[in-house]
DNA sequence: GCTTTTATTTTCAATGATTATAAATAAGCG
DNA sequence: CGCTTATTTATAATCATTGAAAATAAAAGC
């Protein structure tokens, strides 16, 4: 890892990254805190928050700019879409490629300099859909 | 307005709705509070929050499930896309129709029962783009 | 118009997520 | 090993939002 821009690889930073890469879900800062605490019991919540910011800046991870109430974090930094369950709040990756043409389309009519987009689907996950019978 | 589901049309509710419909921006609860306070100085912030929820439920307005840090509210309840300035946080409607086929596409590969989607573009508004020269 | 019912408002305190601060610690360099 | 300073810890502070209790006022009926 390229941590040569004045960044040190501390144990806490390393473990936070490892734990986040380990799961396929998109935990919030508090969940990551709980996960990491199993390995570093005395770590502080502030350290988790700070490192998630740093790791995002270094493109090691990605922060999902929320649609629920709190931020979620994603272990894979590549841009991709998400799908969220309205009932339980569960968040998964959407099985779909990035539609770059969407940006082309909006550029024709806006005076914004468009640099990206974020797409999120809403629905009921298979678990919660059962309850809708 | 159809406020017959056990909802009363209070002065504060009326003014909040009027003020929100009046602007073309997407103010946060605090901004709406400031706007309304010019007409009802003694209104409380909690009342603003509560009414924004109620008005959303009644489909009179729409709450934009944020991508910044705080919720934004939109005077027009119809679904549409937004475009956000990364520098100043300004939020505008995106000049583009809803792409319903996106949902069709994702449905083919997910076991979620998809009921909607939200798309937001990221960019620099014309004002902020000037500073990028 | 006056009563009554109860949704709503106000004031104020509480919560929950996140960020800031200061002192202590430790990564990575020579 | 010793130094520099990024980082951590612990704790307090902030910010947006929500909850609770008492007071107020819509709307419905008389």
Helix content of chain A: 25-40%
Of all chain pairs, the largest interface belongs to: A-B, 37 and 37 residues
What is the global morphology of chain A?
A: flat
- Give the CA-CA distance, first to last residue of chain A: 49 Å
Runs of chain A in which pLDDT lies below 50 for 5 or more consecutive residues are 66-72
Task: Please report which band the strand proportion of chain A falls in: under 5%, 5-15%, 15-25%, 25-35%, 35-45% or over 45%.
Answer: 15-25%
- Average pLDDT metric of chain A: 80
The arrangement of helices and strands of chain A along the chain is HHHEEEEHEH
Task: Give a concise summary.
Two copies of one chain form a homodimer. With 133 residues, the first copy, chain A, is of the alpha+beta class.
What do these coordinates show?
The structure is a homodimer of 133-residue chains. Chain A has 133 residues and is an alpha+beta fold. Chain A folds into 2 domains: 1-75, Orthogonal Bundle (Arc Repressor Mutant, subunit A); 79-133, Dna Ligase, domain 1, CATH 3.30.1490.190. Helix content of chain A is 35%, strand content 19%. The first copy, chain A, has 5 helices and 5 strands, in the order αααββββαβα. In chain A, the strands form 2 sheets. In chain A, strands 4-3-5 form a 3-stranded mixed β-sheet. A two-stranded antiparallel ribbon of chain A has the order 1-2. In chain A, strand 1 and strand 2 form a beta hairpin. In chain A, helix 1 (11-22) packs across helix 2 (29-37) and helix 2 crosses helix 3 (45-57). The first copy, chain A, starts with 10 loop residues before the first helix and ends with a helix. The model of chain A is unreliable at 66-72 (pLDDT under 50). Chains A and B meet through helix 4 and strand 5 of A and helix 4 and strand 5 of B. Strand 5 of chain A pairs antiparallel with strand 5 of chain B. Chain A binds a DNA duplex (30 and 30 nucleotides) through residues 6-13, 28-30, 42-47, 49-51, 69-71.
